């Protein structure tokens, strides 16, 4: 090691020297004109004169901390979304159970069929989708939505 580097290492805190080296490397990578004449000279002067950080510079530790924070925020948002979907699914399942319970309380199949026909006939918004979905896996979903909407209007649950 050169005598100047040894002397600077003894007279300046390691953390400060490490930061100045990171600034130096960042300036070299970005082609900053402040460092174009003598990169090593800039490094020495930045340590001796304790240059302030250039605008936009962040240490490796700071960048890693920011990335970690972003990942944690994304994970938190994903967890909140998962919980929201779970609550919606639980609510949907509870609503379907209410519809099924109400249908089971009707005296016979004819009463259930009559109720379903009335529900579909009065629901202009979803009626076409209901008929178009017949034979598909979405048909039962639309049937339940229409029945649920109709029973809510009738205040049956």
Overview of the structural elements:
The chain is mainly α. The chain has helices at 3-11, 14-30, 39-48, 60-105, 109-122, 124-132, 139-153. It folds into two domains: 3-57, no CATH class; 87-153, no CATH class. Helix 2 packs antiparallel against helix 3, helix 4 packs across helix 7 (139-153) and helix 5 (109-122) packs across helix 7 (139-153). The protein has seven helices and no strands.
Secondary structure elements and pairings:
Blueprint: H1 3-11, H2 14-30, H3 39-48, H4 60-105, H5 109-122, H6 124-132, H7 139-153
Could you write a compact summary of the structure shown?
The protein is 76% helix and 0% strand. The chain is an all-alpha fold.
Keywords:
157 residues, 7 helices
User: How many strands appear in the DSSP assignment?
Assistant: 0
Which runs of at least 5 residues are low in confidence (pLDDT < 50)? Answer: none
Number of contiguous helices: 7
Tell me the β content.
under 5%
List SSEs in N-to-C order: HHHHHHH
Oligomer: single chain
Proportion of residues in helical segments? over 70%
Structural class given helices, strands, pairing?
A: mainly alpha
The value of Rg in angstroms is 35 Å
Number of domains: 2
Quick one: overall form? rod-shaped
């Amino acid at each position: 090691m050169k005598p100047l580097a040894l002397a600077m290492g003894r007279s300046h805190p390691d953390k400060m020297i490490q930061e100045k080296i990171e600034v130096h490397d960042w300036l070299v990578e970005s082609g900053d004109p402040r460092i174009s004449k003598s990169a090593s000279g800039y490094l020495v002067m930045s340590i001796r004169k304790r240059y302030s950080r250039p605008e936009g510079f962040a240490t490796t530790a700071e960048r890693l901390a920011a990335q970690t924070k972003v990942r944690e925020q994304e994970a938190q948002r994903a967890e909140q979304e998962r919980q929201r979907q779970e609550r919606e699914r639980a609510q949907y399942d509870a609503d379907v159970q209410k519809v099924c319970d109400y249908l089971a309380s009707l005296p016979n199949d004819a009463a259930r069929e009559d109720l379903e026909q009335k529900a579909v006939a009065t629901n202009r918004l979803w009626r076409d989708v209901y008929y178009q979905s017949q034979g598909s896996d979405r048909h039962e979903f639309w049937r339940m939505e229409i029945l649920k909407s109709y029973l809510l209007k009738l205040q049956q649950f």
